[in-house]
Amino acid sequence: MSMDWFYDLPNLARADPEIAGLIKKELERQEYGLQMIPSENFISPALLEALGSVLTNKYAEGYPRKRYYSGFDFVDPIETIAIERAKKAFGVPHANVQPYSGSPANLAIYLAICKPGDKIMGLNLSDGGHLTHGWKTSISGMLYQSVPYHVDENGYIDMDEVKRLAHEQKPKLIWVGATAYVREFDFEAFGKIADEVGAYLIADMSHISGLILAGAHRSPVDHVHAIMTTTHKTLRGPRGAMILVTRKGLEKDPELAEKIDKAVFPGLQGGPHENQIAATAVALGEAMRPEFREYGAQVVKNAKAIASALIGRGLKLVSGGTDNHLVLVDLTPYGIGKGVFASEALEEAGVFVNKNTIPRDPASPFYPSGVRMGTPTLTTRGMKEDEMRLIGDWIADVINEVKGYELPEKEQRAEYLKKFRADIRNNEKIRETGQKVRELCSRFPFYLGRG
Ligand code: DSN
User: Cα(201)–Cα(249) distance, rounded to whole angstroms?
Assistant: First the structure.
C-alpha cells in the first residue's frame, strides 16, 4: 500500500502550505530519527485514518443512547464498540472511553472518589511518579493532602514505607503507577495494604497498558478498584485515555461506575472526541490480535538489550536495569544536572529521549540528572536486539562526548548553553552518529518509503 498521501497531504498543501510543510518536516523527523521517548509510539495508518475522519465534526455530549444532541446512528455504535473492546481486553465490567487524556482522566477519578482536603498517596515525582498523583504544582497536590511514597536505594518501590504511611495517614485514595519506573508493580501487595486501611486503590497504568494486554507485565485488574490508562503509549492508540472500573471496585462501591461517568461528563468534560474514540476502538482491536503479544514481549527484550549495552559501556542505570519498556540513565557519576546535555546532544544525533529526574535527584526538575528512554516506537518499526545493541553503543558514544560539560550558576546558564549547542553542532562524533541513525531508520521504514 502506498503511503505517499501521508507525505503529500494534497489538500492541505494546497489550502495551507505553511502548516502542510511543517507537518511534512515533522513526519521526516519521526521517520528518520530514533523516537525513544518512552511515552510515545507510532500509530498504524488505519488509526491515522480513523483519527483524521469526519467523526471530528460530531458533537456528542453524554453517553451512547443518552445524548443531548441528534444524529447518533453511527457514532453511538462506534463508542459502544470502543467500550466493549476495552471491557473485553482488560477483563473489567465498566469502561469510560471519553477522557481527553491522562491528566483529565485522573482528575475525574479524584472528582468521583475524593473531596478537597482528603489525603492521597502516590509515588513521589522524582522517584518516577506522575504530576497528577499529588505533586505540589499540579491541582492534585493543591486540592488534596499529598503523602508521597518513594523507591528504595535499589530503585524498587519501598513497600514497607507504603504500608507504614498508609496505616499512619489513612489516605482515601492510593495510586499505583508511574511515568519513570523500570520495575514491575506488585499490585497484589498494594491491594492488601489498600484493603487494610479502607483506601481506594487506583492503577495508573498509562505507560504499561500495552505490555499488560500483551502479557508482558502482570495485570492490576484483580487488586485495584479502578484503572486509568492513556491510550497513546505502549497501547499504541491515539492520544487519549480510558477509565476502567473493576469487579473489586464495584464490590467496594456499587455506584463507582456511575460516579466515574458523571465525573467525566458533566463533571469535568464537555463533548467527547469521537474521532479519538474510534481510533481507540481500532487500537484495542489491534492490541487483541496475537501479533500484539509478540510486540509487547519484544518491547521488553529490546529495553533489556539497550540496558545491557549501556551498562556494558559503563553507564549507570537507575535500579541497574529494567523489567519493562524504559531505562533511566543516572548521570550523577559525571556530576549533577547533566540530563540537559545528554538529551540535547542525543537530539543533535537524531536520538530523541527526555531529560528526567532520578530518585533523590540532587538537581532541580528543570535541570535533572538523568535521561529517560524507551523502546515502544523502535519495536513498532520492527527493530530487535541487534539494533538495540548498536543504538545503545551510539547513545554511550554521544554521552561520552558531553559528560564533561558542567552546569554553571543560573546567571551564566543561557550563555553556557548557547556555546554548548554550537559545540555539539560542530562535533564530528555526534555528526557521524547522526548519519548512522539516519541510515538505520531508512532500513526500518514505517510511514515513508514502503511504496
Ligand atoms: N508526561 C508523560 C510521560 O512522558 O510519561 C506522562 O504524562
Answer: 9
